[in-house]
Amino acid sequence: MDFAAESGTVRVYTMNDVIDPITTKPGVVRARDAASLILLRGEGRDLELLAGRRPLTVRFMPGVYVFPGGAVDPEDSRPWQTEAETSAFPPRLLRCARAALRETWEESGVLFGRPGPIEQGLRSSSPAAEAYADAGIIAGFDRLRYVGRAITPVRVFRRFNTRFFLGDGADAIGEPGATDELEDVRWHPIGREPLEPLRDVSQFMLAQAIALRGGGAPPPPLFYTVAGKRRIGVCREGI
Length: 239
Description:
The protein is α+β, with helices and mostly antiparallel strands. 17% of the residues lie in helices and 31% in strands.
């Protein structure tokens, strides 16, 4: 099954990894909530994506390019002193949005938001929230757009129930850099050349994000697997 997105030129993305035989096991693993931030800037051939490559030393998706993101932690349930205008998201999506911004800071050093006054009376246990406060940046929850949700196949050894968010690179603050979690972290020129290797779910969500950014408003998709085959449904929580 192929998907296409417009970014000045048309790119076609192909499903390519229904099951990874190296990282599977017979049992069923419960999916953990996770979140990811797709940051895009520029148009057409100048379109760029903030992404990094997972080290070859890790067990889960080694050597693959990914958007910043990761599992939702308990601290993501607590409000930040730097957040405003969070009413657009229900509680579960708000927790995921915090996780997406936290992971983006942890994995790339990039903040997402705008300068503004910080509520000094409220403190957070999140080092990411403290980084926003120290920089005088209001976290841009009100500038995030919900792209969709993807669930890792049942028989993969590590499963995630991931929500993807879209942000404009104009609201990204700080120069990206490599960390212990991601290598080659930078603005990749995807308008001129494809980013490879990129897993099928990332290809699909990137295509959705590009369409959403370009003015299209498709219903948030649910990307999942049934009997070893990819399926695309509608993610009701995003409507």
